[in-house]
Amino acid sequence: MLPPLLTLTILLLTTPVTSQACRCTPASPCWPTPQEWTTLNTTLSGNLIATTPLASICHTNSPFSTYSSTSCAALRSTWPLPSTHYTSPSSPMAPWFGTFTCNPFSPPTAPCTLGPLVQNTVNATTVADYITTIRFTQTHNLRLVIHNTGHDYLGKSTGAHALALWTHHLKSIGIIANYTSVGYTGPAIKLGAGVQVIEAMAAAHEEGYVLVAGNCQSVGVADGYSQGGGHGQLASMFGLAADQVLEWEVVTAAGEVVVASPESNPDMYWALSGGGGGVFGAVVSMTSKVHLEVKTVTANLTVSAAGVSPEVFWEVAERFVAGVLDVTDKGGAAIWMVTNQTFEVTPVTVPGGTRGELEGEGFGYTYNIAEFPSFWDTYVEMNPLSNVTEAQIGGRLIPRSTVESNLTAFMGALRAIADYGTAISGVSLNVSRNGVPDNAVNPAWRDSAIDIVLGTTFDYYNRTADLANQKLMTDVLLPMLEELTSDGGAYLNEADIHQPDWQQVFYGDNYARLSAIKQRYDPNEMFYARTGVGSERWTELEDGRLCRVDGV
Ligand SMILES: Cc1cc2nc3c(=O)[nH]c(=O)nc-3n(C[C@H](O)[C@H](O)[C@H](O)COP(=O)(O)OP(=O)(O)OC[C@H]3O[C@@H](n4cnc5c(N)ncnc54)[C@H](O)[C@@H]3O)c2cc1C
Ligand SMILES: *[C@@H]1O[C@H](CO)[C@@H](O)[C@H](O)[C@H]1NC(C)=O
Ligand SMILES: *[C@@H]1O[C@H](CO)[C@@H](O)[C@H](O)[C@H]1NC(C)=O
Ligand SMILES: *[C@@H]1O[C@H](CO)[C@@H](O)[C@H](O)[C@H]1NC(C)=O
Ligand SMILES: *[C@@H]1O[C@H](CO)[C@@H](O)[C@H](O)[C@H]1NC(C)=O
Ligand SMILES: *[C@@H]1O[C@H](CO)[C@@H](O)[C@H](O)[C@H]1NC(C)=O
Ligand SMILES: *[C@@H]1O[C@H](CO)[C@@H](O)[C@H](O)[C@H]1NC(C)=O
Ligand SMILES: *[C@@H]1O[C@H](CO)[C@@H](O)[C@H](O)[C@H]1NC(C)=O
Ligand SMILES: *[C@@H]1O[C@H](CO)[C@@H](O)[C@H](O)[C@H]1NC(C)=O
Ligand SMILES: *[C@@H]1O[C@H](CO)[C@@H](O)[C@H](O)[C@H]1NC(C)=O
């Protein structure tokens, strides 16, 4: 007899992928009939949208719409703007997923197909829409995708042949003056799943509050951002966005609406607070702590490598990276970027701080320090708008110990990485100043001084070059940082989609518990996202089909 492990291996190799083992596609007999789609659309009051790729107007043989060179030119000029994509029911921002099969930059004669885009989208506005969508995907064995802004770098908010639940229009915002629970009494904000950073910040500011939210104004709040951890300029002061959450309102795979809080469904609450978007349930709203507005001091800095020796240039970067630890200890945070051309700080922020706390860090370069009456004012004034990230990314959380005891080797690694033409962005922060709440945030965050994100060039015209750059990220660039941070990890929202051992790197020792919670709430694994908890049990085939790896 074969030992059990060997038997399993043979089974794995010889069992063909059967149709039930895969989610249905338009080519499979199990795909819903036109009548079933129509009935669904009626139930949804006409809010079912068949996907038309944005760039279909750029192609003469597109089955979706007619070619227009003027509309295409307009689309090309706005393609880098996040709003082009977050107002679309189906356009993911990550270029790897958003452009190859219907590319606004390819010749008009190039084909336009859906590729990794979803097939249909539900424009949800109510809890009933959520339940209808989830039930329909269960009944018909369809791939379900939850899609909010489409900011996700790892392609988690898109998927071939899928039915998407689009949460963008759930825009309710309520300030709760005195939220009261066993664990917390104080002001809070309740946000619908579609509320974006700038909307939430504006509403909070109007009532004299601030909340932890991302640097990019158009990222969501109650969604992939807070569910995945969520950093920002207030994260040293108050903790990560996931640490602020008081309760989630969520529709489960069983189609039930539940509240997840420390008192109610505490395991769901624990998992949603840091365990990653799109896999445990569909969030309808999130209630989080807000904090009193504070006067804030901010500074920005640009140092060019032109005209100085590389040694002098990298010395400036090194002194900043080391010196800013004092700032993060006081509750400040710094967003910086280095390439082999420039070092920029955009900006460094100390909520509640004064000018004196930032003086002496400009090294004689143009260092603009400004005091603002509120965090809102600095956020609006000093935070450059971000475009869609036209890069392929990878990331690493850098433990404070690496910065403190191995700074020379660390900066040497950054320099070597930059010399490949890579852009390196860093967020220096300390997300454990206020203690560490019991949630699913990757424990590696708590010892980290910097979240590093690397970006290699994305070429809209050359898939071979992009594949080579992905390989460079996984095989060459990230290993240079991993070598110095064996006790580190990566931020699951800003990471390499091909990260080896991603379960440990993205989730740390929380993975086993997250996986068990996932299986309890979602035994049929309706909620799938690339590199999400449980996704190792699924594989995406060449033709886009999503299939169970065990084939049964
Ligand atoms: C330009 C840019 C700037 C960024 N800046 C920051 C930053 O400052 N700080 C930071 O921490 N991160 C930042 N990020 C990363 C950001 O946190 C992730 O991209 C995150 O996934 C965005 O969430 P989203 O819901 O807006 O995007 P989407 O791509 O729509 O969704 C992301 C994931 O969340 C899931 N999801 C969405 N809505 C729900 C819901 N209602 N219920 C359950 N699952 C849901 C989706 O299925 C998907 O898995 C940035 C990204 C970009 C592109
Ligand atoms: C759903 O119904 C609306 C309103 O009748 C219609 O405009 C839309 O095209 C329909 N969606 C699909 C996918 O057929
Ligand atoms: C963002 O894209 C727009 C449109 O292409 C462009 O005008 C703008 O300069 C870009 N902004 C940044 C910060 O790159
Ligand atoms: C989605 O629904 C919202 C709210 O009803 C509506 O304003 C919007 O136009 C719809 N979007 C699309 C693309 O149908
Ligand atoms: C908030 O509610 C708590 C408990 O009900 C109460 O003790 C406290 O005085 C309230 N605070 C404010 C500012 O209303
Ligand atoms: C600093 O921010 C101000 C205000 O946004 C901007 O005008 C200036 O160009 C920035 N300077 C540097 C060096 O980044
Ligand atoms: C510092 O980095 C070097 C080079 O990778 C490594 O050999 C050394 O062990 C590291 N030292 C510490 C204290 O981590
Ligand atoms: C910067 O990176 C580019 C691209 O890899 C490279 O060609 C160049 O030599 C680098 N410059 C320096 C000063 O190292
Ligand atoms: C964060 O700050 C706390 C309190 O000052 C300190 O004990 C801890 O070492 C710091 N951690 C990091 C990762 O900077
Ligand atoms: C595409 O990129 C590859 C790898 O970098 C390169 O060898 C090839 O010449 C490029 N093709 C075109 C058409 O530019």
TrEMBL record:
Residue ranges annotated for the FAD-binding PCMH-type domain, each copy included: 114-293
Region forming the signal peptide: 1-19
Superkingdom of origin: Eukaryota
MF GO annotations: FAD binding; oxidoreductase activity
InterPro entries associated with the record: BBE, FAD-bd_PCMH, FAD-bd_PCMH-like_sf, FAD-bd_PCMH_sub2, FAD-linked_Oxidoreductases_BP, Oxid_FAD_bind_N
Keyword Transferase belongs to the record: no
PROSITE patterns: FAD_PCMH
UniProt xrefs under Gene3D superfamilies: 3.30.465.10, 3.40.462.20
Pfam families recorded: BBE, FAD_binding_4
Claim: Cytoplasm is one of the keywords in the record: no
Family according to the record: Belongs to the oxygen-dependent FAD-linked oxidoreductase family.
Name by which UniProt lists this protein: FAD binding domain protein
Species of origin: Aspergillus ellipticus CBS 707.79
